[in-house]
């Protein structure tokens, strides 16, 4: 049987998506699963510099990874590709890569760029990719003021497109949350109808690998709903 595919998006950029992907990978590996991570498009990184996948490996350890396109400027992938004169990301190449890894592991995590409607290429968003892969989508959210609006808009966009939102992850939970943050823990599930699957502590991305691997499984309080993919 092929492994499960989970697409990971954010309500915006800089909400802790990459560390959340690493935490999901670490938790799955602690459960005995073989995990791979795919980053279809990486922006704002020089060709030879370490990107998001390097951060995942740094935190989790060696695992299969794949990056399909890289653009130097920190912009939406479509805009960055156009400005650099580089080829646009192709959905068929992404799907082929994910399907190949899916046949070899138990779980493939696909990390998007920014939010669900950021253009990965002309006429290509993460919603299109999730639909093509028939994969559930986990949404990483910022815990602070504004999270309710951003999260509801993201979840509504996914549902309107026929995608399955599988749950929420708080991307960076501070040691001393403010009032809005503590209220959001209750309000996010109530308003979206989705469980908060886990809460990643602020600064988790700076932990040594051994500490990250040991503690990441404890950050998840609800299981991610499984969905078989062909």
Q: How do the helices and strands line up, and which of them pair or pack?
A:
Elements: E1 4-10, H1 17-30, E2 35-43, H2 52-60, E3 65-71, H3 77-84, H4 91-102, E4 107-111, H5 126-133, E5 137-141, H6 147-160, E6 165-173, H7 179-192, E7 196-201, H8 209-215
Helix pairs in contact: 1-2, 4-5, 6-7
Tell me the number of structural domains: 1
Examine the secondary-structure arrangement and name the CATH architecture.
3-Layer(aba) Sandwich
First and last CA, distance: 8 Å
Main β-sheet, in a few words? 7 strands, parallel
pLDDT averaged over residues: 94
Oligomerization state of this entry? Answer: single chain
What is the H/E order? EHEHEHHEHEHEHEH
The CATH topology comes to Rossmann fold
**What is the general shape?**
globular
Strands of the biggest beta sheet: in what spatial order? 3-2-4-1-5-6-7
Report the uncertain regions.
Answer: none
Alpha plus pi helix count: 8
Considering the chains and any ligands shown, give keywords for the structure.
seven-stranded parallel sheet, alpha/beta, 230 residues, globular, Rossmann fold, 8 helices
